[in-house]
Specification:
By secondary structure, the protein is of the alpha+beta class. It folds into two domains: 4-33, no CATH class; 37-243 and 257-298, Cytochrome-c3 Hydrogenase, chain B (Orthogonal Bundle). Helix content is 42%, strand content 14%. It has ten helices and ten strands. The protein has helices at residues 40-43, 51-56, 64-81, 90-116, 122-125, 138-158, 178-195, 201-210, 225-239, 283-289, and strands spanning 2-6, 17-23, 26-33, 167-168, 171-172, 251-254, 257-259, 266-268, 271-274, 277-280. The strands form four sheets. It has a three-stranded antiparallel beta sheet, with no helix packed on it. A three-stranded antiparallel beta sheet has the order 6-9-10, with no helix packed on it. A two-stranded antiparallel sheet has the order 4-5. A hairpin with a 2-residue loop joins strand 9 (271-274) and strand 10. It is globular. The chain starts with a strand and ends in a 21-residue tail after the last helix. 23% of the residues are buried. This is Nickel-dependent hydrogenase large subunit.
Length: 310
């Protein structure tokens, strides 16, 4: 029996390792392991609540926004539950949503061009999608330019990118002037034009499905360079038979995102996606249902349970 260990497994967001056992050229046993314990929450114990965003916001340089925002909102939720805080000001909510939206664009490009795209590039998989070739690909290089614009826009509202400074419990530290707002809008508009309009997706998909190979499609900038790269990758993945591998339980949950500035609720609601259906859930329902299962870990049983009661 041959044992193969890949640790770390690169191009994912996390500290991951893979162990394989192979007999007669076939994998007979496989283990996926996340061995590193970060303990970001433990760092905040015994400290003033307003320290939490500053500490947890530096945990990751890829998902740097969510940690600072989540810890800020955790402090706000505690204050609201205690009846001493009504909620952040309207302008603070709008600024947070703008930063989160900019981060979405930047982070999705990371996923497409740096974490997943190389596996379906011409250089790695002979797909003809040379735009996705690491470092040398035209799409890869263009994505870096667009991400630079997004990080500059993010820094104008966030004070720094990555690891923003302006998220604080209660709202935002600082208010941009009109010229800064226009600068951010201009940068984001340039990136949006490069990505392409959502309504062009069916036309771009038809172009790839009609081609003999994904790499045969000539990119039309009017339909979006980024959109071509995304659709090309999805078509190449489908042709490679990826739908037949790694099928999960078809259950996902989301805490939601983008608070409404004029009241309760979220633009993208929180809830559960299960068997093709979306079930809306309240914040308390989601929190009460979250547990830490230690059945397949090296941790003791009594270290798991309900995180909210830890």
């Amino acid at each position: 029996m041959v044992e193969v260990t890949i640790d770390p497994t690169t191009r994912i967001e996390g500290h991951h390792g893979t162990e394989l056992e192979i007999e007669n050229g076939e994998v007979v046993n496989a283990k996926s392991q996340m061995k590193m314990f970060r303990g970001a929450e433990i760092i905040t114990l015994g400290r003033p609540p307003y320290d939490a965003p500053m500490l947890t916001g530096k945990v990751c340089g890829v998902c740097f926004t969510c940690h600072r925002l989540a810890s800020s909102k955790a402090v706000e939720n505690a204050a609201q539950d205690a009846g001493v805080f009504e909620g952040p000001p309207r302008n603070a909510v709008l600024l947070r949503n703008a930063l989160e939206g900019i981060f979405y664009l930047w982070n999705h490009a990371i996923h497409l061009y740096a974490l997943v795209g190389p596996d379906y590039s011409d250089a790695v998989a002979d797909t003809g999608l040379d735009r996705l070739d690491p470092i040398e690909g035209e799409g890869y290089q263009a994505a870096l330019d667009q991400q630079r614009k997004l990080l500059k826009a993010f820094a104008e509202f966030g004070g720094r990118a990555p690891h923003p400074l302006t998220y604080v419990p209660g709202g935002m530290a600082g208010q941009p002037d009109p010229s800064t707002v226009e600068s951010v809008k201009s940068r984001v508009a340039e990136v949006s034009e490069w990505i392409g309009p959502t309504e062009a997706a069916p036309e771009v998909l038809e172009r790839y499905l009609a081609a003999d190979e994904p790499g045969d499609v000539e990119v039309d900038p009017d339909l979006g360079e980024g959109l071509h790269d995304l659709v090309g990758l999805l078509v190449a993945a489908a042709q490679a038979g990826t739908a037949e591998h790694g099928v999960g339980p078809n259950r996902y949950y989301s805490n939601g995102v983008f608070d409404h500035a004029d009241g309760d609720g979220l633009f993208l609601d929180r809830g559960i996606y299960r068997n093709g259906l979306v079930e809306s859930k309240t914040r308390d329902e989601i929190i009460d249902a979250i547990s830490e299962d230690t059945a397949y870990s090296w941790y003791t049983n009594d270290s798991g349970g309900d995180p909210a009661k830890a």
